[in-house]
Design goal:
Keywords: Transferase. The chain has 501 residues and is of the alpha+beta class. The chain has helices at residues 88-105, 143-146, 155-158, 203-218, 266-278, 313-328, 372-377, 380-392, 396-408, 479-485, 489-492; strands at 10-14, 40-48, 60-61, 75-81, 112-115, 121-124, 131-138, 178-185, 190-196, 258-264, 289-292, 295-298, 337-345, 363-371, 422-427, 446-449, 458-463, 471-477. A seven-stranded mixed β-sheet has the order 1-2-7-8-9-4-16, with helices on one face. The longest helix is centred in the first third of the chain and has 18 residues, at 88-105.
Length: 501
């Protein structure tokens, strides 16, 4: 059971108004029953930051890594927990109080975006700084309705676990930069959802805050965020939107998709890695740094500027998925160029490095390409080595060149799959989704996300729930592609049922 949290949160509560059926003339019709939604919000609270750290931090200008994300949806991710053993009303008030204190450490999340006269956009934390915390219930649903082994994710249900659905990050000029929802299921299990503006946070910063919020419930030490805007120094470039209208997402958010959570055990990943390294072509350029669980990190086996002769586990897993999804896209011609894109954490790759606690976006996207024929005719090691080489080349100089190119031609990030031949890997199993998010009720059961930023070929990698090195990959594909992938025995031999399910 979570220890009591002092109820010092600056919280304003309002119960949602009752909804009645409307007649054609706009008047309420009392004779028409309204079916209750499976998940309904029973209260909304305005939560304000409190604490010594809640003092105004000043305007924080969006960086060259923040601004491209203005056309992306808010990030939506959260965690299922077993029944906390706490009265529901006490549970909601305790979470709100802890949230208020966490916002005192991260006051920028309670601010708003403001466009200045020169066109630059800043995060401003004024006297009205606040977020919304919702308490929802789903009395007819249980964990089994959400965590269904061997089946597609029930997106009609999971999407309702998150507020601010399909909100574009530029909308942070008028809407909160973050929102939260506690959903209590009929079997007592709970889901804690967090939604954050993608122009304000990347995955590293997102989970840093989530960990801090959970830690406030346990009295854990706080790791203070670094708000210094020292990513690339001063940037004079701005994004201008004629007429004041903000950008739209760069993909079709209504295109039909199927979504699956595919579990890769630690043993399967070890086997993929061994296979990739056995079949790796002689003379392939390797790296003293590698992609580990979706983010670029220094390899402990590299010495100084030496070379790591090994393809990483995550490169091997990504190559396996890249090859299989390309096979499943049967409409692609042999000479079509396929693209595998992933995010690179720039914090430690810059020289000098910036703080690992830098709060904001400190990522760039890197792309590896190959034709359909090349992937079909080459082995796992060849594809994995291609990914390795792309990431190895993205050093301090490459990061700064990419930033300079953006400054010369500012634009929003073109998220999506316009040619039908791309895959994009997001998130990371190295993010502390389970280990850092104990609210005092024990370890979470599963990570889930909303429909934000999902399109054909979008994937997100999560740590396995057991913390044993396994990986869960959330895969979003066009329905016919998903059907083909789930018939591919060469791919499925490495997929297993998650122990958490």
């Amino acid at each position: 059971m979570a220890p009591p949290v002092p109820a010092d949160a600056a919280v304003e509560t309002a119960a949602p108004a009752a909804v009645a059926a409307a007649a054609p003339n706009g008047l309420a019709r009392k004779d028409v029953p309204v079916a209750a939604p499976p998940i309904s919000v029973v209260s909304k609270q305005t939560v304000r930051p409190v604490g010594a750290s809640a003092a105004v931090v000043g305007d924080l200008r969006l960086s060259v890594s923040d601004m491209p994300m203005l056309s992306c949806h808010y990030i939506q991710k959260g965690l299922f927990f077993p029944p906390p053993g706490v009265a529901e009303a006490s549970l909601a008030s305790s979470l709100a109080a802890a949230l208020s204190r966490a916002l005192g450490v991260f006051p920028v999340l309670a601010g708003r975006l403001v466009t200045l006269d020169d066109g630059s956009i800043v995060i401003r934390c004024g006297d009205d700084a606040a977020v919304e915390f919702r308490h929802a219930v789903a009395p007819s649903l249980s964990l089994g309705d959400f965590l269904v082994p061997g089946a597609d994710v029930p997106t009609a249900l999971t999407n309702a676990l998150f507020p601010m659905d399909r909100t574009v990050s530029y909308g942070g000029h008028a809407r909160p930069l973050a929102s939260f929802q506690l959903t209590v299921l009929g079997d007592g299990a709970v889901f804690v959802g967090f939604v954050a503006n993608h122009a304000v946070v990347d995955g590293t910063s997102f989970w840093h805050f989530f960990n801090t919020w959970a830690g406030m419930c346990r009295g854990a030490p706080v790791r203070e965020p670094d708000f210094r805007r020292n990513f690339f120094g001063d940037c004079a470039a701005v994004l201008r939107f004629p007429g004041g209208a903000g950008p739209a997402v760069t993909f079709d958010a209504d295109a039909p998709l199927r979504e699956r959570i595919l579990h890769f055990s630690a043993a399967a990943i070890r086997e993929l890695k061994a296979t990739a390294n056995r079949s790796k072509r002689t003379g392939q350029d390797d790296s003293s740094e590698s992609v580990v669980n979706g983010k670029v990190t220094h390899d402990a086996r590299a010495h100084g500027q030496g070379v790591c002769r090994e393809i990483s586990s995550f490169q091997s897993l990504c190559a396996h998925i890249w090859r299989a999804v390309t096979r499943a896209r049967r409409q692609l011609a042999a000479d079509t160029t396929t693209t595998f894109r992933m995010a690179v954490n720039c914090r430690h790759r810059l020289r000098p490095a910036i703080s690992p606690l830098y709060f904001g976006n400190a990522i760039q996207s890197v792309a590896t390409t190959a034709t359909v024929a090349e992937l079909a005719s080459s082995d796992l090691g060849w594809a994995a080595a291609k990914l390795n080489a792309t990431v190895a080349a993205h050093d301090d100089g490459a990061i700064r060149r990419a930033a300079a190119e953006w400054e010369a031609a500012p634009r929003c990030f073109p998220l999506g799959n316009p040619d039908g031949a791309a895959l994009t890997m997001g998130s990371s199993p190295r993010f502390p989704m389970y280990d850092g998010n104990d609210f005092g009720w024990g370890r979470a059961l599963a990570v889930r996300s909303g429909r934000a930023n999902k399109f054909d070929g979008k994937m997100s990698a999560f740590p396995g729930q057991a913390g044993d090195g396994s990986v869960d990959v959330e895969v979003c594909l066009a329905p016919d592609t998903m059907a083909c992938l789930l018939r591919d025995e060469a791919f499925l031999q490495y997929v297993s049922s998650s122990p958490a399910l």
